[in-house]
Design the sequence.
């Protein structure tokens, strides 16, 4: 065996790219799990087409998975990969431009057939015509070596070929000294009923690892030491998983059963699918006939005393707005999750954007205030979901909880919270008459301005509510001009008053900084990473990130006005920017890109430096 | 002040216990008054406490109904009542949930919700007040208006071919489908009684006169009793002043009207026939109420009820996996610990 050297790295970014049928998401997820087990900090970004299986070998059919891992804490999945694993010519063509010159390129040489080259639009083989000369290229016959390794195993050629992603994973696991045990166990679980498939995949995985050890092609093996993360038990988590767990936690912490009304839509469907598996928590999931019914059923369940929740993305949210308006005037709890994606209309279903902010704030008829909470990180989706439920229950109001396709599918290590430390968000139902022996459904709590929540089944509190304007107190239909003016104002005041019940905006100040970068939602990682980058080179910049968008934290105006300049980076054309300029008369400027991709910390770093 | 709490002995309620203090604001002479009165006088015999009864409506004249029932109620948004009621009924199987809707609300803007509620067989009682016109918006044609109807929005006559609500409900896999008439208190009450005790979704079309915008739309059936083909389970279907006319099934399964004297065997009505073909064929005897028209219960069959199935899945999950433990859930899957 050749002597191999072991080199220490502080961080690595690897991108796995292949055809949609090549199993790249699974490969990436397993590599992530191995990396998490080693204690590295990490951040991942799956990037896949909306088409389930675009024509094999075609450019639109390329599916990618990027993982950034390090021996220190990191905030993003990495701007550019150091290593690109390309399983076919189409994957090479669509991803090579992101690999810096000198980067490591591992390709499946067997896939570079004339036909595949043609499908990818290559007129000559890039492995032979000098196109990749400036990279460290490892052209490995992944398919044929996988077939060779599996020739004794009783699986079809097609099944054997499909195991080539495990060969690649084995090779990458050797290259970055990752353990295989977790992946072996996972394969055994996944294919428990088909032992021959288990054998094929495990054999391919080990063969890939052994190939790394023995081949002369790879002289160096790399190690990335564990990151000094806070003590505790961790798991890797995506934003959508964290939302599902957060909703169950909110159910436990409120004592109310979750009722989820949902209609399948990318990238929110996974929340429905995950919650459907939590029936032992009393979770009811209802896959409705459409987005409207999904929201309507959740509101109907809220009327009955459940924790009513509906999930969707932009195109579904616009349909739900009518029901949300009803929830505003009924003053019933309803939590609406908007996993934002690029629009308008169908847009780019699998790509992130944060351009629904103005729609969720203002996309209903008339004066229709709704609190808005936005998650900043995949793990933070857990807390955002609980916070949205807390506000909805306490203030009897619909609440939007925003995430996006980047947070939804991206993952990071998550310090699992102790349930005992979660907030108590329980609320009381009305049980008796509240006014001179009668029940007044709109007699408000003087502090929160919330109305009593009397659920069917409670004797003596029978009452009717509806979309028509209601008289304050009695809730009876009223067309009285002054009553309407009062009700419009009191609904607004109730939502505005929540500002006293949310944390102040925290500022990561840098002594001497007169520029503040203000973000919200899923851009937290890239912004924080860019701020670090600028500070490393001596730039003075402060950072603040909003998780409450309506109402804003009470100190927001003061914070903004205490800086000479405010930069608001957003994956839209300046929606928060408009709001802060209007609300606080601050001459903030925007940095706006809507490419359906998360910001890179490099571009944000440049934008910040441009203002210093 | 309430009618029983579900634990103690039931207090005998009367119709007035189901009246609210709200002034009823339908036009004088509206058929809705008769339906409201029938409902209020029939509710006490159901024995369901008022607090466990909920009326949900959408938008339209009929949709004001919940405001006048001393139960829980929600006057919601146009067409969405079946969806909202589905959420309520599936999360609270202990409640008696009624949907009150109209022809525009149920068949136009809310058509999708209606058909899906019917196929799911959620425990809902859906009352469709059909007046063949938009009343609240002051007189435009509706999805049940006859072709050629001249209204404010169709000065040269409507071009739309109308729905037959009973045919639609049967086609949408409804397990209970009936038709009654606003002013026929006895018939209406009997149909409502049967709907109330049906397990699953019950759909009742009620011919309701809008005396302002579509007066007399059902007179051919209401005023001329010989045009009422009363469906009675297990009985040969006969109608006419002397029962001289009847219904016979053709070889192709469709139904025709015949003179009893000349006909052979008449069709014997079977509400419980598993296949919906018979009920559907009967519903085709009159597409719109312009001649002999069947009223009564077309179909009443058993099928598993959605909310019960949903509750069973929850129970089965708790039994097989144990009641959910949050700490365990959060720690599921691959975890690692940093000291």
Sequence:
């Amino acid at each position: 065996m050749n002597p191999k050297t072991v080199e220490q790295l502080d961080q690595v970014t690897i991108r796995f790219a292949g055809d949609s049928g090549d199993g790249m998401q699974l490969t990436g997820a397993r590599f992530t799990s191995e990396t998490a087990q080693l204690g590295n900090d990490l951040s991942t970004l799956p990037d896949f087409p909306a088409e389930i299986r675009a024509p094999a070998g075609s450019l639109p059919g390329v599916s990618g998975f990027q993982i950034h891992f390090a021996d220190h804490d990191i905030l993003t999945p990495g701007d550019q990969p150091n290593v690109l694993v390309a399983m076919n010519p189409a994957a090479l063509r669509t991803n090579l431009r992101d690999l810096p010159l000198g980067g490591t390129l591992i390709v499946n040489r067997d896939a570079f057939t004339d036909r595949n080259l043609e499908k990818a639009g290559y007129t000559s083989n890039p492995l032979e015509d000098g196109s990749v000369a400036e990279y460290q290229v490892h052209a490995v016959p992944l398919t044929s070596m996988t077939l060779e390794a599996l020739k004794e195993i009783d699986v079809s050629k097609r099944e054997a070929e499909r195991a080539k992603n495990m060969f690649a994973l084995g090779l990458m696991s050797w290259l970055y000294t990752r353990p295989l045990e977790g992946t072996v166990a996972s394969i055994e679980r996944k294919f428990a009923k088909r032992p021959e498939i288990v054998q094929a995949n495990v054999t391919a995985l080990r063969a890939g690892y052994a190939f790394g050890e023995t081949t002369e092609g790879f002289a160096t093996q790399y190690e990335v030491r564990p990151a000094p993360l806070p003590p505790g038990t961790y798991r890797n988590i995506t934003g959508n998983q964290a939302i599902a767990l957060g909703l169950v936690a909110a159910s436990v912490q409120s004592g109310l059963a979750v009722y989820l009304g949902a209609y399948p839509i990318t990238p929110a469907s996974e929340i429905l699918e995950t919650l459907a598996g939590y029936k032992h928590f009393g979770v009811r999931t209802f896959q409705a006939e459409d987005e409207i019914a999904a929201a309507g059923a959740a509101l109907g369940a809220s009327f009955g005393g459940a924790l009513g929740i509906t999930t969707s993305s932009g195109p579904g949210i616009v349909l739900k707005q009518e029901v949300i308006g009803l929830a505003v005037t009924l003053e019933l709890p309803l939590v609406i999750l908007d996993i934002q994606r690029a629009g308008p209309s169908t847009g780019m279903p699998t790509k992130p954007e944060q351009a629904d902010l103005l729609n969720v704030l203002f996309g209903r008829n008339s004066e229709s205030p709704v609190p808005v909470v936005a998650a900043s990180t995949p793990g933070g989706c857990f807390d955002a979901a609980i916070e949205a439920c807390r506000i909805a229950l306490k203030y009897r109001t619909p609440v939007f909880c925003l995430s996006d396709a980047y947070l939804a599918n991206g993952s990071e290590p998550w310090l699992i919270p102790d349930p005992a430390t979660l907030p108590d968000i329980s609320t009381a139902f009305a049980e008796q008459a509240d006014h001179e022996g009668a029940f007044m459904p709109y007699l408000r709590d003087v502090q929160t301005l919330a109305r009593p929540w009397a659920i069917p089944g409670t004797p003596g509190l029978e009452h009717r509510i509806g979309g028509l304007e209601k008289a304050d107190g009695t809730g009876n239909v009223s067309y009285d001009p002054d009553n309407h003016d009062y009700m419009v104002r009191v609904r607004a005041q109730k939502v505005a008053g929540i500002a006293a019940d949310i944390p102040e905006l925290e500022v990561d100040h840098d002594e001497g900084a007169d520029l503040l970068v203000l973000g919200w939602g899923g851009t937290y990682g890239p912004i924080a990473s860019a701020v670090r980058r600028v500070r490393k080179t001596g730039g003075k910049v402060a950072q603040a990130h909003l998780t409450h968008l309506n109402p804003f934290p009470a100190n927001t105006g003061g914070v903004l006005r205490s800086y000479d300049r405010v930069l608001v980076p957003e994956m839209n054309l300046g929606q928060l920017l408009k709001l802060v300029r209007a609300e606080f008369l601050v001459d903030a400027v925007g940095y706006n890109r809507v490419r359906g991709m998360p910001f890179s910390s490099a571009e944000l770093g440049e934008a910040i430096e441009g203002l210093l | 002040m309430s009618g029983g709490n579900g634990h103690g002995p039931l207090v005998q309620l009367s119709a007035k216990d189901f009246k609210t203090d709200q002034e009823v604001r339908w036009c004088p002479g509206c058929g809705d008054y008769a339906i409201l009165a029938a409902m209020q006088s029939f509710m006490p015999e159901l024995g369901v406490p008022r607090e466990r009864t909920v009326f949900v409506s959408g938008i339209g004249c009929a949709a004001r109904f919940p405001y006048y029932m001393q139960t829980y109620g929600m006057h919601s948004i146009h067409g969405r009542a079946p969806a909202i009621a589905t959420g309520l009924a599936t999360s609270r199987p202990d409640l008696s949930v009624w949907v009150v809707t109209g022809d525009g609300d149920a068949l136009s803007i809310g058509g999708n919700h209606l058909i899906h509620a019917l196929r799911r067989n959620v425990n809902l009682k859906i009352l469709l007040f059909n007046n063949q016109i938009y009343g609240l918006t002051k007189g435009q044609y509706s999805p049940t208006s006859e072709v050629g109807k001249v209204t404010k929005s169709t000065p040269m006559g409507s071009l739309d071919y109308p729905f037959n609500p009973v045919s639609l409900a049967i086609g949408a896999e409804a397990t209970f489908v009936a038709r009654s008439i606003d002013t026929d208190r006895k018939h209406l009450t009997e149909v409502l009684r049967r709907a109330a005790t049906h397990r699953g979704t019950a759909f009742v079309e009620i011919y309701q006169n809008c005396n302002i915008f579509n007066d007399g739309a059902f007179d051919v059936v209401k005023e001329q009793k010989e045009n009422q083909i009363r469906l009675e389970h297990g009985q040969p279907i006969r109608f006419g002043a002397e029962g001289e006319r009847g219904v016979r099934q053709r070889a192709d399964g469709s139904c025709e009207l015949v003179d009893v004297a000349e006909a052979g065997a008449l069709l014997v009505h079977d509400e419980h026939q598993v296949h919906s073909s018979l009920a559907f064929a009967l519903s085709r005897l009159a597409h719109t109420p312009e001649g002999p028209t069947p009223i009564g219960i077309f179909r009443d069959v058993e099928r598993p009820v959605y909310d019960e199935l949903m509750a069973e899945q929850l129970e089965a999950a708790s039994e097989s996996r144990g009641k959910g433990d949050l700490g365990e859930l959060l720690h599921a899957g691959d975890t690692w610990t940093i000291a």
In short: Chain B touches chain A through 67 residues (CB under 8 Å). The longest helix of chain B spans residues 31-46.
